[in-house]
Amino acid sequence: MAVTDGPRTGHLPIDTTDPEEERLARRQRIEDAARWLLPIAVMAVAIWGWHRIVVANEIPHYVLPGPGLVLETLWEDRGLLFASLMITLQITFAALAVAVIGGVGLAVLFAQSRWAEMSFSPFAVILQVTPIVSIAPLIFIYIESRLVGLLLCAWIVAFFPVLANTTLGLKSADHNLRDLFAIYRATRWQRLIHLQLPSALPYFLGGLKIAGGLALIGAVVAEYVAGTGGIGSGLAFRILEAGYRLNIPRMFAALILIALTGVAIYGATSLIAHLSLRRWHESALKRE
Amino acid sequence: MTGETRSGAHNLPGARPGDGNLQGTDAPQMTEPDPILRLRQVDKTFAGNVVALRGMSMEVRQGDFISLLGPSGCGKSTALRLIAGLMRPTHGRIEWDGGAGTDDLGVVFQEPTLMPWATVEKNVWLPFRLRGQPLSRTRDRIREALGLVGLDGFAERYPRELSGGMKMRVSIARALVTNARLILMDEPFAALDEITRQKLNDDLLNLKAQTGATVIFVTHSVFESVFLSNRILVMAPRPGRVIDEIAVPEPYPRGMDWRTAPAYGEITRRTSETLHAGLAQPEEP
User: Fold this and answer.
1) Interface TM-score (ipTM) > 0.95
2) Once rounded to an integer, what is the mean pLDDT over residues B110-138?
């Protein structure tokens, strides 16, 4: 707050900011920095602790490799591991794409026809609640192509959140707006395009965030189930293979890659959601 | 009940043409125009034999500003939904002149009912858009309607950037933009604070004078109904019905001094008494 009193308070330093406000601003700056620095610091301490434990107890690398060795392995096996990462990524993204198309398509169908919803939603629920590890062996019996099998498994896991959220979103259009569209004699198609789909967008994006992570989990789990029998070469296959060979550092290296991939997918879907909603949706609003 | 009730004879011709005339069809008329809408003994009964509306009859003429005034449960919103074609009457008829349906309507709800993902301009474009008219060809009209409600320069804003009163103005612009021959307003200012509400009432009266719009206005405020309308249908609950019609023989355009005119006070008092008498009345058989 400005001091406007003039000469009489001239002996005081004329400060244009309120000390209370300044204190709040400082606290805000500290909090902003802490948001990044704290997790990094904790992570660094954890890795250092890991390193100390391994060194202090002289744990052999085939039991628990130190963080240095894991990094070294990541670098040395980079050709092998990144080729596997690419395959896992391909399956993940293909499954996610099909999940989005299938999930949104089914949701639109459900929103248009209650009969379709009554008929098909139990199947969707059954697919969702049955653990993928128990379905996957059957899939690999009936489906010859390993790639298609993996894709199918990842899709089954990923599509339900997209379907469930988008269905909810399509039904959540403001009822007054629905009335308005009815009064203006909007066609079913116009209502879908101009009202229901935009209303469903925030819900869909929430589903996409979940589905992104699940597609990766589905791809990895399916590869475990498919096992090393075929000519598999995704990251999960590398982990299994390294396990059989007691190459523990490589297991860790592959694990780190999977974790980083999951984080990257989450970051990407969050960014997409933020960019699509930042102009209008409550979830993306910055509050004073 | 009162000398002027159920007369309809004080019905005034449409508004005089004003500046910035959006409608331009309202040359002063000497004879009473034909009704554009007629309700004949309309009943609406919901499931479980809940009578929402019984025996409602009314006529709406070009340039009318009719208030449906009553407490909650008196069927005023039901009447509006019937007129809007969102429901069908259980008995009775709703007749439009020329047999035309109800697609030529503007509607303002109690909430602004804007699409949050669309800019102000695109929200106002909606009635045109649903008729397949592109934004480029209707932009002038949209800007004109936004000007009428005092929102020049807000076309590119999103609803969340606006105050409650401004959102309501956007909603009114959307109802005006197509020059609909009847505008339905369902307690549009009920959720606003008193000061904003009065300002919007003043502005609505100006709009009425400028556009000559025909309006059916649902409200539970006696003051609002007397201030704005030329006819007030007073309604009572259980079962929802019209108990009286009160004419407000003050020509449009009404000046801001209307709020303090002796006639305003007199009609307000009379309307209030009618409303309370209706509440005290025993249920009709």
Assistant:
1) no
2) 92
